[in-house]
């Protein structure tokens, strides 16, 4: 279908596609500790991932980001959920494709320009400076992996400046 046939309208909501990846090994998760050049995010922990480049599908982008950031390939990388991050206009929103997989061994990947990669015990997540949406998304990804399901959610900022994530109810 041509772009014209898609009825794309500039005044409609647009999103930037990105990936978020959680890599598990036993009772740990691999997270990225942002470098000091990341401003307000400096020292905070996030999953791996990044932008979906033009011509890529989200899974291909997730595999590329995983290779670039951690030097690893995960054949079992699986889509766990999608999240629309609603950013007030005129900015486009973000369409986040959340993937997870299991590493067969726990290696310490080299540092990247983005920051250092660290394995964190799932039992110690409350003791480390996570990006504020990561606890909710990490739990949702783990649940989706176990249930072999995919979640759909919307993230928005409340009037109080807090991030609120609303999950769509599952239907059969």
What does this protein structure show overall?
The protein is globular. The chain has helices spanning 58-70, 134-147, and strands at residues 15-25, 28-34, 45-46, 78-85, 93-102, 115-121, 151-157, 163-167. Helix content is 16%, strand content 33%. The protein has 172 residues and is an alpha+beta fold. Strands 1, 2, 3, 4, 5, 6, 7 and 8 form an eight-stranded mixed sheet that branches. The protein has one domain (13-167): Nucleoside Triphosphate Pyrophosphohydrolase, CATH 3.90.79.
- What is the H/E order? EEEHEEEHEE
Which strand-content bin applies to the residues?
A: 25-35%
Distance between the termini: 30 Å
Radius of gyration: 17 Å
The coarse overall form would be globular
CATH class: Alpha Beta
Number of separate helices: 2
Average predicted local confidence, pLDDT: 88
Q: Strands, helices and their partners?
A:
Elements lengths: L14 E11 L2 E7 L10 E2 L11 H13 L7 E8 L7 E10 L12 E7 L12 H14 L3 E7 L5 E5 L5
Parallel strand pairs: 1-5, 4-7
Antiparallel strand pairs: 1-2, 2-3, 2-6, 4-5, 7-8
Compact description:
This protein is of the alpha+beta class and 172 residues long. The protein has helices at residues 58-70, 134-147; strands at 15-25, 28-34, 45-46, 78-85, 93-102, 115-121, 151-157, 163-167. The model has no long low-confidence stretch (mean pLDDT 88).
């Amino acid at each position: 279908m041509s772009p014209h046939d898609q009825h794309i309208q500039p005044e409609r909501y647009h999103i930037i596609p990105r990936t978020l990846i959680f890599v598990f090994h036993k009772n740990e998760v691999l997270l990225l500790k942002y470098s000091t050049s990341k401003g307000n995010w400096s020292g905070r922990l996030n999953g791996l991932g990044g932008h979906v480049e033009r011509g890529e599908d989200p899974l291909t982008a997730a595999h590329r980001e995983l290779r670039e950031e951690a030097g690893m390939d995960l054949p079992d990388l699986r889509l766990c959920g999608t999240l629309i991050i609603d950013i007030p206009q005129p900015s486009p929103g973000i369409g986040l494709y959340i993937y997870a997989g299991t590493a067969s061994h726990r290696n310490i990947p080299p540092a990247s320009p983005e920051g250092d990669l660290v394995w964190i015990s799932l039992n110690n997540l409350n003791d480390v400076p996570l990006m504020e949406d990561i606890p909710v998304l990490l739990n949702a990804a783990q649940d989706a992996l176990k249930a072999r399901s995919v979640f759909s959610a919307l993230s928005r900022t409340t009037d109080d400046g807090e991030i609120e994530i609303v999950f769509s109810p599952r239907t059969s």
